[in-house]
């Protein structure tokens, strides 16, 4: 894919691209925005280095791709004065980190976010990578018989899973039903849309059959051939398309600090 305002260096043949030649601390030109849209569609997740953005720049960047999605389940971690921004922080006192299981962000919401923009200002000296997996490639690798079996099935996604099966007092967590295979609204490509982080069962199947099928898909989507892996540095940004990727945060840096902020972009109802 050709670009004139930005440079995109592929991370792997199948997905991921490191973008250079753009300054996200400043407003972007129409051409830069248009090419970033194309880069995201082509690479599924794009990365930026040396971008010390503040909250204003973070939200401005997200708004180039749609309005900002504020998920009900992120309320306890919202940045004071900036409800659009979720604090992502782990240190020596942490007992867990968000996103260790493979997942698509907030698939439990009725209209899950189009994408997520994660900025890290503090990173451990080594470790803390994020792995991403290509759900187009995962779907394409299924047999025709399996594709036919999954076609038309729907699955329940429940935010309670992310809280260890317990609903925190005073919170109303979302629970939604989405197709097992979704069609990307921009590319028209099909992608697997069940994930270990939120999906609980496939509707219309006996529970044992649903568990077995989901277990197969949860293992299938994390095949190394579908993946790329991003090694963070201070002031790096990752922007991924939740509609056709899953990701997993690697917590191998305890008790070191890994800290930053995430903004999510409004999506639509999966079809």
UniProtKB/TrEMBL annotation:
One GO cellular component term noted in the UniProt record for this chain: cytoplasm
Domain TauD/TfdA-like: 8-262
GO BP term (any one): sulfur compound metabolic process
Pfam families: TauD
Domain of life: Bacteria
Keyword Phosphoprotein listed: no
Gene3D superfamilies: Clavaminate synthase-like
Molecular function GO terms recorded: metal ion binding; taurine dioxygenase activity
Keyword Kinase: no
Keyword terms of this UniProt record: Dioxygenase, Iron, Metal-binding, Oxidoreductase, Plasmid
InterPro entries given in the database record: AtsK-like, TauD-like_sf, TauD/TfdA-like
Family according to the record: Belongs to the TfdA dioxygenase family.
Name of the molecule in the record: Taurine dioxygenase
